[in-house]
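Appendix B, example 12.
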Amino acid sequence: MSVKAMSLVWDFPCPMTVNGVEFKPSHKFCLLAYADHADHNGKNIFPAVGTVAKKTGLDERTVQRLTADMSDMCLLLDDGKGPRGTNRWALPFSAGGDKLSPPTNCRGDKNPDSLGDIPSGDIPSGDNLSPELKEPKPTNTYSTDETVTAAILEGWNQMLETLEGQMSKKHFLNLKPSEVVHFGDGVLQVMVENDALQEWLESRLQQTVERTLLGILNQQVHVQFVSAETEA
């Protein structure tokens, strides 16, 4: 148990958006339970999901969802496996150790079996993906409306390049296959493969995409994700 780690979690602002994901009171409560297992440096956190569920009174499925969210936020950094095979986490202490400071870029996996994204590992934080991990750009399977100008398409492509350097590979690949299909009245329609992906992008990346496009296009653009399943 680390009083210091728990104190830093208590001091971390809530609610707020962290790396494109909203940090809510339920996340903070769950993070406190993890911090209760940390050492003085915020490391060696490896309680089982059931243990966290018992501490918080939350069901295990909720704990798993909140944990995945906090991994995406980089408030829990993947640090391999614990002695009993559970996930081992570390808190993102600042250089001075006086606050939580989640890195902006969560890139690279600790080991081939891990899906946790951390600022160090086989792909350095902020680096572009290595050539062997890059996938060819998908062909456009949807007809793009004539309202989509070259400037809009260029802005969208620049946005993708920017976010590729800031997002985990697994999340970027959820956004990459999308296709711009219409633009009008400040609304940019983007086609995605299915309803589930549409819902995920709306809840997790829409604000980040819109904020990045604003910086590139110098105009406010509302992004509307539409599902190819629904449109079919």
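The chain has two domains: 3-90, 133-231. The longest helix spans residues 150-164.
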